[in-house]
Amino acid sequence: MPIYEFHCKDCNENFKVLRRADACEEVLCKHCGSKRTVRLISVTAPTATNENGGLSTFAGGGG
Q1: pLDDT at 13
Q2: Contact (Cβ atoms closer than 8 angstroms) between residue 46 and residue 58
Q3: Is the whole-model pTM more than 0.70?
Q4: Per-residue 3-state assignment (H helix, E strand, C coil) for 35-50
Q5: Which pLDDT score, from 0 to 100, does residue 38 have?
Q6: How far is CA 52 from the centre of its chain?
Q7: Please, are residues 14 and 5 in contact by the beta-carbon 8 Å criterion?
Q8: Ramachandran sector of residue 21 (left: φ over 0; alpha: ψ -120 to 50; beta: rest)
Q9: Helix-, strand-, coil-residue percentages of the chain, each rounded to 5
Q10: Whole-angstrom distance, CA of residue 21 vs CA of residue 43
Q11: What residues pair up with 57 in beta bridges, in sequence order?
């Protein structure tokens, strides 16, 4: 199951939820219990294999 990040419009907190993709319609805030939450777009750092066979990330520029 993927981890989704949400933002609460009432208490302005961000939180993460482990949930099936088809079960993200109504998520209660972990901090205040509000139903006024929105799912955030997650940003991931792209990775690639470097010349030595290890992983390197483009985000840090140190590959």
Answers
A1: 97
A2: yes
A3: no
A4: CCEEECCCCCCCEEEC
A5: 94
A6: 30
A7: yes
A8: alpha
A9: 5, 30, 65
A10: 17
A11: 47
Write the single-letter amino acid at 42: S
Give which of 7, 60, 2 is closest to 35, Cα–Cα: 7
pLDDT tens across 8-48, in order?
999 999 999 988 877 767 899 999 999 999 999 876 655 66
What are the C-alpha distances in Å from 29 to residues 4, 16, 38, 41, 46? Answer: 13, 10, 10, 17, 29
Any idea which residue has 């199951």 for tokens?
1
Token representation of residue 58? 């483009």
Beta-bridge partner residues of 6: 15, 39
> Which tokens go with 56?
């390197």
Q: Which residues contact 14 (CB under 8 A, 6 or more apart)?
A: 5, 6, 7, 8, 40
